Structures are given as structure tokens and as C-alpha cells.
Amino acid sequence: MQATVKWIDGRMFVGEAGSGHAVVMDGPPDHGGRNIGIRPMEMILVGLGGCSSFDVVDILDKGRHRITSCVTELRAERVDAVPSVFSKIHLHFKVTGHNLPVAAVERAVKLSAEKYCSASIMLSKAGVEISHDYEVIEG
């Protein structure tokens, strides 16, 4: 896996992944940015949500469960010091489907957290307290 981050101006950067996809990152005006892109630490949080969500949907899909939606809400706390690393992150999965067994969603969330989500496992090993919960919605 490869990526390149190029400084544009002020505090704006463009990150390009080896896949060719790009994203703009920027900072707030009080730090020299123009507030036109996602913050780097927000990227980490979004990446964690994407990694976990990918696993949950993949596991449920392979189990032939009929999923119609998966929305993952993340809440993070950061330490009040420099570096301002994450101390806690909570993921709340809202999984919608037809006759979706609660046990299947619980299993998918647990497998993602403990076995498959590289981002979650990496952050946990770095000392971030990560918690998960879920709700199953018929539809």
C-alpha cells in the first residue's frame, strides 16, 4: 500500500492513495488553513469507520443476510495535551435489513473488532479504548 501527500498552500494538502483516489485535507483558519477539507485526525476516524463498516457488511453479506443499510456513527475523545491523540472511540452501528438476526449483527461487529478491522486493532494496540454497540432495524 502506498500514498502520497502533497502540500498545496497554507495548511491544505492533497493525499493520493496508490489506488489513484485523492482527498483534500485542510486546517482551520486559526492554524493557517482555509477550512476546505477534512482534518487529518478526522481522516483517521473516518478510516476506522470505513474499515469496520466494510467488515460488518462483508460478514453479513457472506452470511446471506439481506442488508439494506449500514450507518456507523463514531464518537472520539482526544487527550488534552500535545500530541492530542485519541483516548477513546465509540462506534455505533445501525444495521438495517429484512429479517436480520440480532445475533448475526452482534457476531459481525465482534469479528470486525477482534479479528478483521486492521484500523481498530492497530489503534487498540496503541492504547486507544475502542468500544462498539449496534442496533438492528427492520427494513
Description:
By secondary structure, the chain is an alpha+beta fold. It has two domains: 1-38, N-terminal domain of TfIIb (Single Sheet), CATH 2.20.25; 40-138, GMP Synthetase, Chain A, domain 3 (2-Layer Sandwich). It has three helices and six strands, in the order E-E-E-H-E-E-H-H-E. It has helices spanning 40-62, 102-116, 118-125; strands spanning 3-9, 12-17, 22-25, 66-78, 86-98, 129-138. Strands 1-2-3 form a three-stranded antiparallel beta sheet, with no helix packed on it. Strands 4-5-6 form a three-stranded mixed beta sheet, covered by helices on one side. The radius of gyration is 17 Å and the shape is elongated.
Number of strands: 6
Shape designation: elongated
Question: Largest beta sheet: what is the strand line-up?
Answer: 1-2-3
Q: Uncertain spans, ≥5 residues at pLDDT below 50?
A: none
Which second-level CATH architecture of the largest domain applies?
2-Layer Sandwich
Q: Helical content, roughly?
A: 25-40%
User: The biggest beta sheet, please?
Assistant: 3 strands, antiparallel
Strand portion, in percent? Answer: 35-45%
Helix/strand class: alpha+beta
Distance N terminus to C terminus?
37 Å
The name CATH uses for the topology of the largest domain is: GMP Synthetase, Chain A, domain 3
Order of helices and strands: EEEHEEHHE
Mean pLDDT: 97
CATH superfamily of the largest domain: K homology (KH) domain
- Based on CA atoms alone, the radius of gyration comes out at 17 Å
* Count of domain modules: 2
The CATH class assignment of the largest domain is Alpha Beta
Number of distinct helices: 3
